[in-house]
Amino acid sequence: MAYSKGSAPDVFNMIESLIKHPDFKVVLEKSAYSEEVFALYKKYQINVHHDLENDITPESFKRFLVESPLKYETISGDNGSFELGSFHQKYYYKGQLIAVGVLDLLPACVSSVYFMYDIDFAHLSLGKFSAMVETRLSIYLSKMLPSLKYYYMGFYIHSCPKMLYKGSYHPSYLVDPSTLDWVPFEECVKLLDLAKAKRINGFACFSDGKDLDNPPISGFDDFFNAEDYDKMDAYLHGNVYCLGRLCKGLKDYPDLVETLQQTYAILGPEIAQRVLLCVQ
């Protein structure tokens, strides 16, 4: 999901005043491990995502939100310079770390990778606040690098309540999974609502979605033929099964079958045949 650069509304004046408040501080630092950030991450994962405490380790945190394939590169322009790469944007209130946004600064966008907050401050809607701060950052950096025009909010899953807030920012766009074109969110959500209401399998193709009575939906069978089923494997309960056999055996679990099919559809035939999907 992308949020386009536009004129800064009055809300950015409010953001500016909050950032400059003596009790509040926002710090952008290169991605690195610290006990302070890991403690916040652990508390967030346990209380918000209900992860098991023993599953949250410094090593898994580093792999997820610290280590990055991006290399830092300094960009210089008429209005200053900054570095591209992976960063942690830290939010402090009265000296206490209350939230961290994990960001990739890229030549064309600021990409929001992850956001975590202290649940004791959940009433502040820090996720929404961070989106405005990150949009402000995108606008600021675009003055030094004109190609940086967008703020990417990451994946949007219409059936996930935790992601619906992303649709409240305007103007915003979703990428069409079949054409890779960016389509206004308002047009996409009509198809997504319809697909949800009719429980249509597969993925909405937004670009050609003018006829809402017969929306163009791409599903598993559009990507693979019958022979492909036997070329793809999945791991379940200690055994490896070809996808065709597994889906037949799971016919009483249609939601799981749909998830398997959609996962392989996303990967595409070439990659799917090289992947072993672990089903838990």
UniProtKB/TrEMBL annotation:
Keywords: Acyltransferase, Transferase. It comes from the Eukaryota. It is an enzyme of class 2 (transferase). The keyword Acyltransferase applies. Its EC number is 2.3.2.8. This is Arginyl-tRNA--protein transferase 1, variant 2. It comes from Entomophthora muscae. The gene is ATE1_1.
